[in-house]
Design goal:
The chain has four helices and nine strands; from the N terminus they run E-E-E-E-E-H-H-H-H-E-E-E-E. With 215 residues, the protein is mainly beta. The protein is globular, with a radius of gyration of 18 Å.
């Protein structure tokens, strides 16, 4: 499963349509842990560096978690409520067509995202699972649509998956502007907390975003 990750752009070397790019992927760590229920979890961290002819343009870090399967007593995710009220929010309703298209777009052939019978009978989910990276992409929609000012770009984006989202269930995507702190880079103009709420009002994914002016 997709546990979390982050993306950092180089404001002085943004990727442009038509450029030739090279992506280098390396494993940065493998960590074996035990859950509260005593199940083994293996966290695998990957780093993907994207370069063009000017050098590094983007670094994509992601963490995947491999877990033991337990058909007899599947673990129910803990309901965690948001700590803050959103400045901006928007509702969405992921459909089977959207999940299928995203699978095709990202060359993801895992049947858990588009085969209901497989998701239910093999993976023990109530319905097809919304992709982790799709949820992360949706986290940025409030910023893209209403919060980013002209000339501003996202420099840092960090996110963490907390509970699954399922197809044909309503979700709410939220954003709140946060105060800048001294440990941030001097060029950061704005900071946001972003999150996705499931139909029960609990956190499904949360993240932070730092915005700078395009160089």
């Amino acid at each position: 499963m997709w546990a979390g990750g982050g993306v950092e752009q180089n404001p002085r070397n943004l990727l442009r349509v038509g450029q030739e790019m090279v992506m280098k992927t390396r494993c940065t760590g493998v960590d074996v842990k035990e859950s509260r229920e005593g199940k083994v979890m293996v966290f695998v961290s990957l780093e993907k560096v994207v370069e063009n002819d000017q050098g590094v343009a983007l670094t994509d870090s992601r963490t995947l978690v491999y877990m033991e399967k337990d058909r007899e007593s599947p673990v129910k995710p803990k309901l965690v409520k948001p700590r803050r009220q959103a400045d901006v929010s928007m509702g969405m309703h992921p459909t089977a067509i959207q999940l299928f298209r995203y699978s095709a777009l990202t060359f993801n052939s895992h049947r858990i995202h588009f085969d209901h019978e497989y998701a239910k009978n093999v993976e023990d989910h109530p319905a097809c699972l919304v992709h982790g990276p799709l949820s992360a992409t949706l986290l940025l929609e409030p910023l893209r649509l209403s919060l980013l000012q002209p000339g501003q770009i996202i420099k840092n984006f960090r996110y963490r998956a907390l509970s699954p989202l399922y197809v044909e269930q309503p979700i709410k995507i939220c954003a709140k502007k946060m105060a800048l702190i001294p440990t941030m880079n001097a060029d950061v103009e704005a900071s946001y907390e972003v999150w996705v709420e499931n139909p029960q009002g609990g956190l499904a994914m949360s993240g932070t975003v730092e915005v700078v002016q395009e160089k």
